[in-house]
Amino acid sequence: MKPLSNVEVMEKETATFECEVSKPKQTSTWYQAGGKIEPGVGDWSRFRTEIDGKVHRLIVESAQMDDAEKYSCSINDKKTSAKLTVKGKLFFDHCEHMIFIDLIISSVVTE
Predict the structure, then answer these.
(1) What is the pLDDT of residues 18-38, one digit of tens each?
(2) Quick one: pLDDT at residue 102?
(3) Residue 20 burial (CB count, 10 A)
(4) Distance between CA atoms of 15 and 59, rounded to whole angstroms?
(5) How many Cβ atoms are within 10 Å of 16's Cβ, its own excluded?
(6) What is the pLDDT of residues 88-103, one digit of tens each?
(7) Which of 5-9, 31-35, 58-62, 101-105 comes out lowest in average pLDDT?
(8) Burial of residue 64, with CB atoms counted within 10 A of its CB: 0-12 exposed, 13-18 middle, 19 or more buried
(9) From CA 18, how far away is CA 16, in angstroms rounded?
(10) How much is the pLDDT for 12?
(11) CB atoms < 10 A from the CB of 62, how many?
């Protein structure tokens, strides 16, 4: 089994973990911080899995800060793990909003 690699994405981007095995048609189970992932169900609605021959993927759509955890892929008796890092938006984006809000407050107070 080829080990998972750490993944780093910006918030709201898609994160993809890939695990390659020696034989096709094997069943994989994915875990986040030790808990089994149930793709597409409830809190896992942004998570999905794919199998392309020998390559097993876990895809996290629109990554959130809470998704930054250790992920593991288990196939038969073998397991590999890696970390997802989710980076927040740049301060500059937030700064524009703060200035905009500040201007609205100032105009209301002066009128």
Answers:
(1) 999 999 989 999 999 989 999
(2) 43
(3) 15
(4) 6
(5) 12
(6) 865 555 555 554 444 4
(7) 101-105
(8) exposed
(9) 7
(10) 93
(11) 12
Sketch out the chain's domains with CATH numbers: 7-110 (2.60.40.10)
Whose tokens are 């938006």? That residue is 89
Q: Which residue bears the tokens 């038969």?
A: 76
Q: What is the 3-state secondary structure (H, E, C) of the chain?
A: CECCCCEEEECCCCEEEEEECCCCCCCEEEEECCEECCCCCHHHCCEEEEEECCEEEEEECCCCHHHCCEEEEEECCEEEEEEEEEECCCHHHHHHHHHHHHHHHHHHHHC
Instruction: Please name the residue that has the structure tokens 């876990």.
Output: 58
Query: Which tokens belong to 64?
Result: 């959130």
Place of tokens 């200035």: 99
Which residue, 5, 28, 1, is CA-closest to 81?
5
